[in-house]
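Hey, resending since the last one bounced:
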Amino acid sequence: MKANIFERITNQIVDAIEAGAPEYSMPWHRNGKSLDCPTNAITGRAYRGLNVVTLWMDGQAAGFQTGQWATFRQWNEHGAQVRKGERGTPVFFWQQRDNGQIDQDGDDERRRFGFVAKAFTVFNIDQVDGFMPDALPVLPEVDRIARAEDFVRQIGATIQHGGDHAYYSPGYDSVQMPEFSQFKTPNGYYATLAHELTHWTGAKHRLDRNLSNRFGSADYAMEELIALSGQSAPCLTHH
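The structure tokens again:
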């Protein structure tokens, strides 16, 4: 009987993986203040891959204060003007290309697909004048869940707030979180906090799990699965 249950669950997981996951949405609004987490100032979307490193390095070298960027055209369309003489930073996006090759029969349309890199030049918000950013939605303090707050408080972990990142720092033995007001929902805040607190339990002087594993390794994947299992803990206290 148990074997059948495990087999059914395993098959459900395999089916979900094969179906593909929906596009991930961050549970909090990025405020763009962090240089090492660059975002598009107009669309709010985070830059990815090598673009993150490029924008961070250029921003740090130029002494920019935030990680908000946009193209010359995007700034202009929103009433801002890139100052004369400012140098932009190139970013790259990969787009799927349809070569349009069709077979001779005409019955079965077969195409060859590839990817092509498109380059754009972006400018930091510190390089423009006249931009008035839209205010980000603010999650009110009254939306805090009292029982979840009590649950977290009883754990006794050191929790810091600020910036656009959520993580556990083994070196400081503390959890770093964005502000509560940045989150889209209270459940998003407490689930994220519970995830990082689960990593916190793995410290050597607690449960002594291996937290030095590399991204992509089996140990790293196992640690993330453990942390995911901990995300529901505050929800169990909320009725």
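The first strand starts at residue 39 and ends at 40.

Sorry for the duplicate.
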